Amino acid sequence: MSANGRVTLGMLLDSLGPDAVTAICLPGGRQTLVGAPVIHGAGESLVAPVEGALLLVTGRPDPADVQQAAAAGVAAVVVRGPVNLAALEEVAGAAGIALLAAAPGLAWGQLYTLVDALLAIVAPASDLGETTAADLFALANQVAARVGGAVTIEDLAMRVLAYSTVDGQRIDDLRREGILGRRVPEHPTHAEEYAAVLRSDAAVWSYDPREYLPRLAIAVRAEGEALGTIWVIEADVPLASDTPQILAEAARNAAPHLARLNLAADEARRTRDEWLGWLLRGVGPVGELATSFGLDPGEPVVVVAIGSGDGDVFAAGHAGDLLRTAYRAYRMRGVVGAVGGRAYAVVAADSTGPVLRRITAGMLGQIEERLGGRWRAGIGRTVPSVVQAPLSARQAEEALRVMCGPFATGRVGGHAELSAALYLQELAVSMRATPVHAGEPLSVLVEHDASHGTEWVRSLRVWAAKHYDVPRAAEALSLHPNTLRYRLRRIGELIALDDPDVRLVLALQLRLHAAALRPGTNGDG
Questions:
Q1: pTM more than 0.90
Q2: Which of 256, 227, 263 has the alpha carbon at shortest distance from 40?
Q3: Alpha-carbon distance 331 to 337, whole Å?
Q4: N or C, which end of the chain has less CB nearby within 10 Å?
Q5: 349-365: per-residue pLDDT in tens?
Q6: Which domains does the chain have, with CATH numbers?
Q7: In the chain, helix, strand, coil percent, each to 5?
Q8: What DSSP string runs through 375-429?
């Protein structure tokens, strides 16, 4: 049941389910009424009216935060992450306030939207003709009723935050899939379609994809910054003539909601990335951190590191968001975030294997399309528990450096299979103070080629690559075998080719020399 825009805790818990929120303490029982969600930082003073509210407390709240909420008339407090639940439960029970725990992987902005949606469904706005809306779902219904078409409100990641539920309004498969999946499905026309809307200050018509119904859309902005978009479908009956003006008004009304959601999402992202950084370094309450991310502290995990070599913090965050979406789609347990200009994932070992590499490689292609650059991934070795995640993280970083450098091919590489490339990488780093080709025996041949116009260095490189097989090397060089044998005898007059140590050093120098000349590589990862 609901009353005055509120729902019972029982309805809230049953509707959202244990994957979103669970009850820790219900002193007033499941019939306690809760109202609109309010996002509040731990340790901050409560200044806004919060009586009867569902208080989403970000950060690491302590008992004083629960006591303050109870004194202010808050109906229920929601916490998440590494907190002392026993201490909070004791205070909540004594103060008579409900205490709930949000799921580790659920962002505060997502929970806010879920609760808003529930309130909109069970306690819809009483007057759809009003120009202001209590929440995004009510706003979508207001606009749909006034313009005569189905409405969705989206964020910049094309996630569907709210949609109209007015009876009788037609939608197409694109809109239906977006509502069911809470994200607009991929389509080749979307990049330009959304860019056109975000470039304009007024409503813009969109007729692509051609197989779907026409749409009129407008960007939602706050102080010039784009926060999202509002879309309305034109079906069998033309939209109202003043639809552009109505959408402009709706965009102004939606801006505070989207700004609040963005702030909550940013706060959740910062907290997640900070905790992930602790996990990767083995700092802080590792067991609690692992549990907050849905991992068993004692189970095997593997770390994935993703980067482009330039350390762009914004790009790393966006890449992490894309990778997180892909991993969740394949039900891979773990946490993904951005730390130090790279994206990292700590994944349960039972999620690894060929599918992890395949999904990661596929997402790197999408990341390059959206952000540009040359993105690569390194995968550490599986470690027995989350406590040893720092070891797998260091291995993933080493593998990433190799994948971004000249000694590996492909997009994704595992530390276990890159031993030779890792050795060459370390050797190249140790020789970075001087040119790779400096020093005998290679320098003698480089100088001879420069002075006499010969191709002895190339001949030796091909000869070594063909396992010192003269006929095969001669074929690759388009030479007669006797010509190559003569060339090798001449080289042997300058350096001791028959000496196994000289030949070993020369082979390494040739490999490093070729890597140094290869364009478009970055050895820093």
A1: no
A2: 263
A3: 17
A4: N
A5: 865 567 888 889 888 88
A6: 7-122 (3.40.1390.20), 127-262 (3.30.450.40), 294-430 (3.30.70.270), 434-517 (no CATH)
A7: 50, 15, 35
A8: -EEEE---BSSGGGHHHHHHHHHHHHHHHHSTT--SSEEEGGG-HHHHHHHHHHH
